[in-house]
Amino acid sequence: MTTRPVLVRPVPATEPPVISAEEAYRPVVAQPYTQAALALDFTYSPGDDSARRLTRRSKLPDPLPFVAKIAQAIVEVITAQRPAPQLIRHTSPAIYSGLARRALVAAKRRPGGARRPAMVRRVRICEPADGIVEACAVVVVHGRVRALALRLEGLDGRWLVTQLTVG
Question: In which domain, by residue range, is 129 found?
Answer without folding.
Answer: 61-166
